[in-house]
């Protein structure tokens, strides 16, 4: 998995010229790290059991803090 992988994607929804609503602009969404890992490598570092329960995964490489709308704005 690349260290500089971008987990935030964006798109511009279709907006018709006849649509009375304002153009919604560019939308952003977060994608989880496991989508970019073709397979799980052996001997990945692991969180402690307590940390794993708090973070929702045993492996730091698969952890995504998902900072909803703090950096994404949209």
TrEMBL record:
Q: Which Pfam families has this protein been placed in?
A: CotJA
Q: Which UniProt keywords apply?
A: Capsid protein, Virion
Which stretches of sequence are listed as region Disordered? Answer: 1-32
Q: Which InterPro entries match?
A: Spore_coat_CotJA (IPR020256)
Q: What is this protein called?
A: Spore coat protein JA
UniProt source species: Fictibacillus solisalsi
